[in-house]
Each structure stands twice: as structure tokens, then as C-alpha cells.
DNA sequence: ATCTAGTTGCGACTCATTCGCAATAGACAT
DNA sequence: ATGTCTATTGCGAATGAGTCGCAACTAGAT
């Protein structure tokens, strides 16, 4: 498991007002076992604090994104246009999404790190976010379903 | 300029019915100078054939995606949640999106190709689509605006 | 020229996300 | 502890991209 930042402390350290809703949302994201979309995040966070509104979820996600504490993923839009969120890890990583079974695999590699440095150097580009998503067939599905139309 | 496939011929070769609307849409995508979203594509294609509907645009994009002839991009959602489309090029490439000025730079590199092979090999993943997007500040904006909050 | 299955236009719909505004509540000063 | 002030919240309505069902149309085969 890749090391993740401690959101709650990090947010507090930024001098951001900590409301009950934000606390519930941040703890939920932090402890999530899988990538959450806004609706699932809302549902889970309501177990901690039942009085949270949809709008607050979006506003909090916006805040965390702005602070660079979470990443927003599309995961190849396997299930509609919603976004998914994850706590930023120390190392960038990419996501492999299986079009057949929907499984998401994560992947890190020195080559990825190297590519990142290359982009920054050759283009003199100041990288804030890097989102690499791959769609295709995972090992099992490729074996089972050799041809995709 | 990266070499692009000739869409119209390629589509015909697939035995797909060529309607006036598809022709107009495909020619428009092929000749586009920049990345088009569905709405701009519709607007431009109507100059060739004024009788095209929004739904047909989406259905045609879906078709071309399925045939593997175009790629769908998010371009870091710089301007809302819409998607952008481009004709597939011979080589995969990535997009650098400037959060400040909105400019999109393209980038190819042997390291990117290598990373792709690595993913396919190490994970035994059958890659269909690869979408690598980078957000940050381009050379000029980084110089002009050294600190982003 | 005819036939027919694939394609289209239309309008209504869905779904994710955003907004305006009045009510509320952190957190700092007292 | 209490009051104050401003950021944050909930609510409900709005937006915007994309999708759907269905009747009308048409490309291309015969």
C-alpha cells in the first residue's frame, strides 16, 4: 500500500476551518478502501455525521483538490461521467481500468517517474497534476475474452 | 505534426454506412486545427451539412471511438466537464494543459513508449487506450506567475 | 425501382455538478 | 463562558453534457 498523507492534520495545518462535515468527509476519504465518487462519499460520510449535504461534498472535494491533497480520477469513465477521488500518495501512480470486469489496478514504475522528469525538463512545464489512465483488458479478462470487437 | 489516419477511408473500409452527416462530421474532425468538443464539432460540421443533430454527433463519436479511430480527451477539465476528440495518431502522445492560459501542448517520447510496453508486460494488461494528461503551468505562465496558491 | 435494416431528428430525460441565498456555527477576542 | 464576525452550510432550483425512445428517413444491396 502506497503511503498517503494524513489529510485531517494537513488541512488543519493550512489554517482551514474544520467543521463537523469536513471532518466526516476527510476521515471517510482517508479510510476508504477503494476509489470513491461524490455520491458514495456522501453516503459513507453520513454514517459519521448524518447532516451533510451533496453540495458540501463537492465544495470539500474542491477545497482538497485546491490544497493538492487529493487527486481526481476519471477511471476511464467505466460507469458514467462521475469522478473518483483518492488521497495523494507520495509517489505518482497510474490506473489500469479493465473494460470488461471494471477492476482497477494501480501501477508505479521508475519509468513513470522518469517520464515525469522528462516532461518537466524538456518542456519547462511546472507539473501540478499528472493523470495517467489506461483502459483495456486485465489479465483474466484477456484470457477469457480474446477478441474485443 | 504527427501522422494521422485517414478517417473517411478507414470508416468506409469497415463497411460502415456512410451518411451525409457522418461524412460532414468525419471531415470536420479530420481537418480540425485544434481539439474539438461535441458542441464545436456540431457547429463546424453544420457548415458542411446544416441538417445535423446533437444526438448524431454523439452517436458518431461513439462509433469512431469503438472503431479505435479517435481518442477521447479530458484535457484536465479546464473548461467544464466536456470531452475533446482527436484523430488517433500513429504514436501515442500526451497532453500538457496549462491551468493559467489554457494552452495544450503535445508531447511524445521514447520513455512514454517504453512505459506502455512495461505496463503491458508486467501486468499482462491488454492496452486499448492510454490517456496521459498533465496539468500545471506552461513555460511562459510559470515565469510570469511564479506562485500558484 | 424496390426493399429494408441501419441511421437520423426530435424532444424529453438523466445524471453529475453548481449556484444563490438565508441560516448556521467555528474560532478568535473579550 | 459569551459575543462577534465571517466562512461554511443546507436547501432547492438551475445548468450542462450526454442519452434515449420512437417515428420518419435513406444508403446501399437486390
From TrEMBL, chains A, B:
<dbReference type="GO" id="GO:0008270">
    <property type="term" value="F:zinc ion binding"/>
</dbReference>
<dbReference type="GO" id="GO:1900376">
    <property type="term" value="P:regulation of secondary metabolite biosynthetic process"/>
</dbReference>
<keyword id="KW-0805">Transcription regulation</keyword>
<keyword id="KW-0862">Zinc</keyword>
<feature type="binding site">
    <location>
        <position position="141"/>
    </location>
    <ligand>
        <name>Zn(2+)</name>
    </ligand>
</feature>
<feature type="binding site">
    <location>
        <position position="138"/>
    </location>
    <ligand>
        <name>Zn(2+)</name>
    </ligand>
</feature>
<dbReference type="InterPro" id="IPR036388">
    <property type="entry name" value="WH-like_DNA-bd_sf"/>
</dbReference>
<comment type="similarity">
    <text>Belongs to the Fur family.</text>
</comment>
<dbReference type="InterPro" id="IPR002481">
    <property type="entry name" value="FUR"/>
</dbReference>
<dbReference type="Pfam" id="PF01475">
    <property type="entry name" value="FUR"/>
</dbReference>
<keyword id="KW-0238">DNA-binding</keyword>
<keyword id="KW-0804">Transcription</keyword>
<protein>
    <submittedName>
        <fullName>Fur family ferric uptake transcriptional regulator</fullName>
    </submittedName>
</protein>
<dbReference type="GO" id="GO:0045892">
    <property type="term" value="P:negative regulation of DNA-templated transcription"/>
</dbReference>
<dbReference type="InterPro" id="IPR036390">
    <property type="entry name" value="WH_DNA-bd_sf"/>
</dbReference>
<dbReference type="GO" id="GO:0003700">
    <property type="term" value="F:DNA-binding transcription factor activity"/>
</dbReference>
<dbReference type="InterPro" id="IPR043135">
    <property type="entry name" value="Fur_C"/>
</dbReference>
<keyword id="KW-0479">Metal-binding</keyword>
<keyword id="KW-0678">Repressor</keyword>
<dbReference type="GO" id="GO:0000976">
    <property type="term" value="F:transcription cis-regulatory region binding"/>
</dbReference>
<feature type="binding site">
    <location>
        <position position="113"/>
    </location>
    <ligand>
        <name>Fe cation</name>
    </ligand>
</feature>
<keyword id="KW-0408">Iron</keyword>
<feature type="binding site">
    <location>
        <position position="101"/>
    </location>
    <ligand>
        <name>Zn(2+)</name>
    </ligand>
</feature>
<feature type="binding site">
    <location>
        <position position="98"/>
    </location>
    <ligand>
        <name>Zn(2+)</name>
    </ligand>
</feature>
Amino acid at each position: 500500500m502506497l503511503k498517503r498523507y494524513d489529510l485531517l492534520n494537513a488541512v488543519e495545518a493550512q489554517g482551514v476551518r474544520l467543521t463537523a462535515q469536513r471532518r466526516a468527509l476527510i476521515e471517510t476519504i482517508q479510510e476508504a478502501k477503494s476509489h470513491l465518487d461524490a455520491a458514495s462519499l456522501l453516503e459513507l460520510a453520513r454514517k459519521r455525521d448524518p447532516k451533510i449535504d451533496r453540495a458540501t461534498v463537492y465544495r470539500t472535494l474542491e477545497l482538497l483538490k485546491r490544497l493538492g491533497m487529493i487527486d481526481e480520477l476519471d477511471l476511464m469513465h467505466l460507469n458514467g461521467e462521475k469522478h473518483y477521488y483518492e488521497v495523494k500518495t507520495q509517489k505518482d501512480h497510474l490506473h489500469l481500468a479493465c473494460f470488461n470486469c471494471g477492476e482497477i489496478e494501480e501501477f508505479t514504475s521508475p519509468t513513470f517517474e522518469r517520464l515525469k522528469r522528462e516532461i518537466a525538463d524538456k518542456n519547462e512545464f511546472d507539473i501540478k497534476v499528472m493523470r495517467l489512465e489506461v483502459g483495456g483488458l486485465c489479465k483474466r479478462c484477456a484470457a477469457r475474452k480474446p477478441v474485443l470487437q
